[in-house]
Amino acid sequence: MNGLLLIDKPTGMSSFGVVARVRGILSRQAGNKIKIGHTGTLDPFATGLMLLVVGEYCKQAGEFSKLDKTYEATMCLGATSTTGDPEGELKPWSDRKPLAVELERVLKTFQGRIEQTPPIYSAIKINGKRAYQLARAGKTVEMPRRTVIVAELKLISYDYPFVRIACNVSSGTYIRSLVEDIGITLGIGAYTTELRRTRVGNYTVEDALKLTDLTGDLLQRSLLTSL
After folding, report:
1. What average pLDDT does the segment 129-154 reach?
2. Do the Cβ atoms of 200 and 13 come closer than 8 Å?
3. Domains in the chain, start-ordered, CATH in brackets?
4. Residue 50 has pLDDT above 90, yes or no
5. Which of 114, 106, 101, 83 minimizes the C-alpha distance to 185?
6. C-alpha span between 183 and 190 (Å, rounded)
7. Is the pLDDT confidence value at 175 over 70?
8. Interior CA angle at 128 toward 88 and 176, to 5°?
9. Is 68 marked active-site?
10. Among the options 8, 43, 85, 181, which is catalytic?
């Protein structure tokens, strides 16, 4: 059993939980353990498209992980979070309400090639350990800055304190960090309350399977093998 699966991850579940769920269903269908991997994680609070590689396609996981991605995110202005999302400790910063024109002006400054520091609560490995594991253990984590590309960043809606944005980004871009940097530039702070991945390369979430609908037969029929 080999191929690529498009899965729409629900909120509240880890990416590893999604892999385990699909592996269990396919393994029961096949009568033996099926090798499955992911090509890029989504935070538990996030939703959207995950590409899962099955069987021999696991060898191509690195290629799929390098594909550009599209996200839709909701920012909350005026506060920060220790994790950059709703799961962290929130700290009020400012109650100033920026105008939409100011928001759009700031968003434009983050388009193109930018430098960002990934969040300490991330799966990036530091000296062989996941950054989030070190952070949860109370250890100081020095995250290396990286260059990423934000090909497009646009304002969808603004109803203070919530801002909805859509962005096309290169692989390795952290939307939580992008939102935090936008909040710092505005001088009022911001964190991500909702995050949905809608595209990876040429694959879109509209073509993805929902976990609630999964059966062994459906997964087998949905395996993509002509890429």
Report:
1. 75
2. no
3. 3-66+201-222 (3.30.2350.10), 69-200 (3.30.2350.10)
4. yes
5. 106
6. 4
7. yes
8. 30
9. no
10. 43
